[in-house]
Amino acid sequence: MSTPRTIIEKLWDSHVVAEREGAPSLIYIDLHLVHEVTSPQAFAGLRARGLKVRRPQNTFATTDHSTPTTPRALPIVDPIAKAQVEQLETNCKEFGIPYFGFQNPKQGIVHVIGPENGLTQPGMTVVCGDSHTATHGAFGALAFGIGTSEVEMVLATQCLLQRKSRTYEVRVDGTLKPGVTAKDIILALIARIGVGGGTGCVFEYRGSAISALTMEERMTVCNMSIEGGARAGLIAPDDATYQFLAGKAFVPKGAGWDAAVARWKTLPTDDGATYDHTISIDANTLEPMITFGTNPGMGIPVSGVVPDPASISDPLERDSLTKALKYMDLQPGKPLAGQPINVVFVGSCTNSRMSDLRAAAGVLKGRKVNPKVRMMVVPGSMEIKRQAEAEGLDKVFREAGADWREAGCSMCIAMNGDQLQPGEYSVSTSNRNFEGRQGKGGRTFLASPLTAAASAVTGVVTDIRALKS
Amino acid sequence: MAKFTTLTSRMMPMAVDNIDTDQIIPARFLKTISKEGLDKQLFNDWRYDAEGKPKADFILNAPEWQGVAILLAGDNFGCGSSREHAPWALTQWGFRAIISTSFADIFKSNALKNGLVPVVVSREVHAKLFALVEKDPQAQVTIELASQTLSLPDGTKVEFPVDGFSKHCLLEGVDELGYILHQMAAIEAYEAKKDVELNTLQPS
Predict the structure, then answer these.
(1) Among A26, A31, A436, whose Cβ lies nearest the Cβ of B180?
(2) Burial of B138 (0-12, 13-18, 19+ CB in 10 A)
(3) Cβ atoms of A341 and A430 closer than 8 Å
(4) How large is the angle between the packed helices A354-364 and A393-400, nearest 10 degrees?
(5) Cα–Cα distance between A27 and A32 in angstroms, integer?
(6) How far is A365 from chain B (nearest CA, A)?
(7) Side-by-side strand order, sheet with A25-28
(8) Which among B109, B165, B201 has the least Cβ separation from residue A147?
(9) Given an 8 Å threshold on Cβ–Cβ distance, is A150 in contact with B113?
């Protein structure tokens, strides 16, 4: 009888190419996703060394970060962004990499289109020059963000030098109450462990509340693993995973599919396997969450009050909270609900899929966005955009007074012109509330699509459960 | 990669926890397709006012702190995105080492590939270093990579962790990609063995 292993260890073991004394393990990468921002210097490196892309068939590119979300018939106005998008296209052509470009009907946020097309599959190692690569862990893949030097290494060799991470079990049992979503699970976890809590670890999310999540909800949870400090976070594949993937463009068909599912079924953690760390969260007691500060760990239930720096003993931690509250211009001890806002952003690789858009539209149907609020809804992919329009969600958003855009990262990272103005407050469904993240001087409250849409209606931070019909 | 052996420098104090990569270099400066000139945007939004003028009260702008090669920062330095532009900007400005109680994983990995040494110290040593800089901004410390020691002006030597491989790469200026390219036989053998599994991406 072999030693019971976690899915994390199984994925690691099956991807070790070579091990040498005194060096990290050489790990094989099954899927390499590429976007315009973190790849140009890597391709330049390949050219300088005269190297090719080792496996273009396991590499896939799209443009999302610098990409405008204005109608696609319009040119890219920003010359620097345009040059970057065009450089990716040039690089993909030169090195033979499949590419869903700016005008391609399948373009979208890299972490949305991977699963959407079945590129992301259980048992894979997936990397991308983007820290939200953990999203793909929802399929039982070991997926993590890498730097540009590593992008170059994977392009050239399909391998990376890596050290084994510690395993961290995140157990979530129970049933979510109405108004509480997958986003609230992950915000609650990060509020508990802090933004460095998972450093050096890979999370495995499990338990009855995780099993009950749809694939889209699982992606939301895994997506923000990095905000808890973990490079990767994953969920073992199950029937929901196979149902989601069946028939997708890039998954095997027929006998190949059956063989793949048989392999994937061996992935879940063995009974009796142990983890280096464990945390347990009771889904029954979770509330809708929102952040108040300048990192994703600064989160509270939406019904809660802004913490007081005076209650913190560690001087550096206390100063950091004071600095955050100064930037956010919030008073300690005051409730966050009722705080006036200027902008609502529904989108990003965290919450831009069909279920997110349906949730936001469900709140907005028959209501209006508060006249003081600018609301922007950005679908995660052009495919999602079409599907949402087929369901009439675009009409709901437009009739409510929200702006319905083309696919891209948009105001999550504010590289493409979609941004907050200095001093503005936003409720955003994205993943980061760092200073200036959504535009210089902008202030971000991270929350679920339900909380975002409810706040858009009232013009203040709002508990969805208190929204009057 | 630039070699790193020994570094003696003053320490620029930045007493903020969780300094994220959006502070180190904001995303709007990542539209470049080159690695060059990023030092100008290092800590951009803390460094310049609304008109783009340097803020006199931000330490990076202070004349007396120019040329310093060690940054002394709060806990969990470099959290956030995977942008390697962060270590590029830091090294182009002149930093060769950062001292903190901990570093975010991806930042640490990126830093080590760019000759920027993350020096992890205990909370006690960390507090002592901040106290030292406050008392004497001219105080210099020495980082010696071979012995993995940080030497303080009072003669105290503190050991810091560096994995053996990264240390070797830094000391010798070894390029990781070159190292992997030497293992092509192992990569080919792995691919041959897992042929079916590696070919599950089948467009239809």
Answers:
(1) A26
(2) exposed
(3) no
(4) 40
(5) 13
(6) 34
(7) A16-18, A25-28, A159-162
(8) B109
(9) yes
pTM for this entry: 0.97
Which residue type occupies A253? K
pLDDT tens, position by position, for chain A (469 residues)?
A: 689 999 999 999 999 999 998 899 999 999 999 999 999 999 999 999 999 999 999 999 999 999 999 999 999 999 999 999 999 999 999 999 999 999 999 999 999 999 999 999 999 999 999 999 999 999 999 999 999 999 999 999 999 999 999 999 999 999 999 999 999 999 999 999 999 999 999 999 999 999 999 999 999 999 999 999 999 999 999 999 999 999 999 999 999 999 999 999 999 999 999 999 999 999 999 999 999 999 999 999 999 999 999 999 988 889 999 999 999 999 999 999 999 999 999 999 999 999 999 999 999 999 999 999 999 999 999 999 999 999 999 999 999 999 999 999 999 999 999 999 999 999 999 999 999 999 999 999 999 999 999 999 999 999 999 998 7
Q: Establish, for the pair of chains A and B, how many residue pairs have beta carbons separated by less than 8 Å.
A: 210
Burial of A175 (0-12, 13-18, 19+ CB in 10 A): exposed
Find out whether A214 and A241 touch, Cβ atoms under 8 Å.
Answer: no
Instruction: Write the residue in B45, B113, B200 that is nearest to A436 by C-beta.
Output: B45
Is A415 in contact with B83 (Cβ distance < 8 A)?
A: no
Nearest-CA distance from B66 to chain A in Å?
25
CB B10: neighbour CB atoms within 10 A? 19
Substitution target in B100, B180, B194, B199 with the highest count of A β-carbons within 10 Å is B180
Residues in A touching B190 (Cβ below 8 Å): 17-18, 28
